[in-house]
Amino acid sequence: MKKTIVSLAFIAMSLNIAPVVGANDAGFDLSPSACKEVVSDFMDTRLTDSRSARVQLDSDPYKVMVDMRSADDIPAWAVDILVKSRLPSGSWSNYQPYTVIFQDGKAVALESEVVGVTRT
Fold first, then answer.
1. Across the strands, what pairs with 75?
2. Burial of 97 (0-12, 13-18, 19+ CB in 10 A)
3. What is the pTM (predicted TM-score) of this model?
4. Is the separation of the CB atoms in 99 and 81 below 8 Å?
5. Could you report the per-residue pLDDT of 62-95, keeping only the tens digit for each?
6. Kindly report the CA angle at 10 between 53 and 103, in degrees rounded to 5?
7. 27 partner at 20 to 30 Å CA-CA among 16, 38, 65, 79?
8. Which residues 6+ apart lie within 8 Å of 36 measured at CB?
9. Phi, psi at residue 37, to the nearest 5°?
10. Is 67 exposed, middle or buried (0-12, 13-18, 19+ CB in 10 A)?
């Protein structure tokens, strides 16, 4: 349900915003703690009740090529995460997997929000 809501929100946003392109994305320069903070802030805008959400990094950053609606083969980085949050009923959800796409050290999208992601 949340992935569907997130996907619909991104589709609406993507009609108005061009993707950030990092042509010279030489390396992923965020420390693990900084990466977790950026991911948590990014997910805050996408969750219904982000105050109680628990975010865990589930992978080291890895290189990807991203196909967006307005451009193909954009170099980027990705980090797999797990998110546990409160449901509208007040109970806790199970951990849900997500992949966050980074460009120029900023979280810009979830994998479910773009056309395609290929690990390089």
1. 65
2. exposed
3. 0.74
4. yes
5. 999 999 877 788 999 999 999 998 888 888 989 9
6. 80
7. 16
8. 55, 57
9. -65, -45
10. middle
